[in-house]
Amino acid sequence: MTTPPQGTTSTPKTPPAATWGAYWRLMRFDRPIGSLLLLWPTWLALLLAGGGRPSLKNALVFTAGVVVMRAAGCVMNDIADRDFDPHVERTRGRPLASGELGLRQAVSLFLVLMAIAFLLVLLTNALTVKLALVGAALASGYPFFKRFTHVPQVVLGIAFGWGIPMAFAAETAAVPVIAWWLLAVNTVWSVVYDTQYAMVDREDDRKAGIKSTAILFGRHDRLLIGLLQLVFLGLMAYIGLTAGRGGWYFSGLAVAAGLSAYQQYLMRDRELAACFRAFLNNNYLGLALFLGLFLDYALS
Q1: pLDDT, tens digit (0-9, with 9 covering 90-100), for 227-237
Q2: What pTM, to 2 d.p., does this model score?
Q3: Measured between alpha carbons, how far is 147 from 168 in angstroms, rounded to an integer?
């Protein structure tokens, strides 16, 4: 393992404004795409669990909770990767990697965020609180899976989607089978978009000894991503049929299928910037699915 950059564990000598900016970037609040990719499946779960009309309290709690937990996950990710990030072009400017913030400050921020998330979940019910403990472990442990498995994206998908069973628990005090199917769908989708993301860093990750599905898939990456996209769309269709949804839902699913095909087009030459655009395009895919389900409940 490489030696951390000098200054990563010392108190940064930056002015207060720059320090707050570093905390902001450490939580990735300057890059909201990650929060959105967590919010779409959580909102889908709330709609399904609430029959199209989830409680306002749960909608607010889960929206805030997703944002806070995503921030906590990003902080823990940078804590875990602080020895690797300085050697990757895209990540060497992160606050911990550059020495702008120290390890103690990052750990303190992580604990504060986890405390806020715990206070939020206390506004729900006992089953949701129990599930939240599992979610906290997943969010904290995910970054370390990159050390010994090429499929950390599977763990990421479960961690990112754990708000799904929690949403059902908060709305219905139970976790029905459809919630676990939706979690499985989200896991497949997470592998798709995080592999696209990892394709950008594939060569740097290989040199640094970080494992990913992009490295595992190799020259078959586009084919395997395409197969996973088909599984994802098929499972979303199954969920729609199981939930008795109608035309608006499947119209949203059709748009999602078109966006999946567009992502394949973007990745056709494996050009790094284009692969990153394919990753970002998943935000619109999630939006299409959410709007399809929302309109289906609202207009049917």
Answers
A1: 999 999 999 99
A2: 0.86
A3: 33
